[in-house]
Design brief:
By secondary structure, this protein is mostly beta strands. 0% of the residues lie in helices and 53% in strands. The protein has no helices and 11 strands. It is globular. The termini are far apart. The relative contact order is 0.32.
């Protein structure tokens, strides 16, 4: 069992920045960030393997960057040049495949609101 606790969400104006953190009680092959906007399905944002390989969704490439500190079991999401369409609940997840159905553990989420 891996427990995940997110922090760092908040409200910011378009063009601003935020950094999300996720403290994990253990580790798995993949850790990632997913988001869900009101009325929409949960979607992947970015994932990182324990070996450092990363993957990210096209809408966030160049703006949202994932990283992890394996020694401390902390996952980060640096969010720059934020847009109103980035508004969503952001979830930290851990598991063996980088996709919604492939993650075994989920945090409760942290809300990010971007105003225009």
């Amino acid at each position: 069992q891996v427990q995940l606790v997110e922090s760092g969400g908040g409200s910011v104006q378009a063009g601003g920045s935020l950094r999300l953190s996720c403290a994990a009680s253990g580790t798995t092959l993949w850790m990632g960030w997913f988001r869900q906007a009101p009325g929409k399905e949960r979607e992947g944002v970015a994932c990182i393997s324990m070996y450092g390989s990363t993957t990210s969704a096209d809408p966030v490439k160049g703006r949202l960057t994932i990283s992890r500190d394996n020694a401390k079991n902390i996952l980060y999401l640096q969010m720059n040049s934020l847009k109103p369409e980035d508004t969503a609940m952001y979830y930290c997840a851990a598991g063996w495949r980088c996709m919604v159905g492939g993650m075994d553990y989920w945090g409760k989420g942290t809300l990010v609101t971007v105003s225009s």
